[in-house]
Design goal:
By secondary structure, the protein is an alpha/beta fold. It is 44% helix and 9% strand. It starts with a helix and ends in an 8-residue tail after the last helix.
């Protein structure tokens, strides 16, 4: 190769190098991971054709930031309770769920549905009465006491998940619980039953949100959005036909509550 050709080749190589150096690197997508029970799961059997609040939240974050967000919805349609999620965090240290949380930029936890007193056989109000609670035994005192039994477990879940991120900038969100008893078709509640469910869910949600806030999470109050400021409005069309899981409209409402909390620290 003569000198003139070599010079042209070297010049061209330098130009290509400089042009490549000027092209900004493609940002790595943010990872959103959801864990918990069947409320964030969005099964097609529960709500055909519905878009989950998890996906809606990711889309809103992308719109607000211009940053791509990938979604791993690792919630479980298995009647998962807080004990199950806690066990997964504590014992299965090599699981894909734990690894996903370690690498997540946004984490949504939805684990409020299945341990509430009316669903429990060992609550401090009426004990093992299944789907036919004895509402006369429910009081504010037993509702608060039943909820407080679970506080250490929720605190442990929230604090362990925060610790997995080792101080990296992360959006930590959780949701409280809406009332899927009041207005349940075919299970009309007496005034006493309506008031009892309100007392239980009021206490339950206060416990969850305090546990979240004291351990690095922000709590989205979907209860008020579904059931009004007094907790007495039936969930109605915000839940699907099974009157348990959110409908498409309900998913939109939940996403809206989450979005209204902002996207800090990823988006100031």
């Amino acid at each position: 190769m003569n000198k003139s050709i070599r010079s042209i080749f070297l010049g061209f190589s330098l130009l290509v190098f400089l042009l490549n150096a000027c092209v900004p690197a493609t940002p790595v997508p943010w990872s959103l991971v959801a864990v918990g029970d069947s409320i964030p799961f969005n099964s097609v059997n529960d709500c055909p054709g519905c878009t989950s609040f998890v996906v809606r939240y990711a889309e809103a974050l992308t719109a607000a930031s211009g940053h791509e967000v990938t979604v791993q919805n690792l919630s479980q349609h298995t009647s998962l309770q807080i004990d199950g999620l806690l066990q997964q965090l504590e014992t299965d240290t090599s699981s894909f769920r734990r690894e996903a949380l370690v690498n997540a930029d946004i984490i949504i936890v939805g684990i409020a549905a299945n341990d509430v007193a009316m669903n429990s056989n060992d609550d401090l109000c009426d004990g093992p009465n299944g789907d036919n609670p004895d509402w006369s035994k429910y009081s504010e005192e037993c509702a608060v006491a039943s909820a407080e039994l679970f506080r250490p477990k929720f605190e442990s879940v929230f604090s362990q998940i925060v610790a997995l991120r080792e101080g990296k900038p992360t959006i930590f969100r959780t949701i409280n619980r809406y009332n899927d008893w009041n207005g349940w078709p075919g299970h009309d509640l007496s005034p006493e039953g309506i008031e009892a469910t309100r007392l239980v869910i009021d206490a339950w949600n206060e416990m969850i949100c305090k546990a979240a806030q004291e351990n690095g999470f922000v709590c989205a109050d979907i209860y008020s959005a579904f059931n009004g400021p007094d907790g007495l409005t039936p969930s109605g069309d915000l839940v699907a036909v099974d009157y348990t899981h959110p409908s498409d409209k309900g998913n939109e409402v939940i996403a809206g509550v989450l979005i209204d909390l902002g996207f800090a620290p990823l988006v100031p």
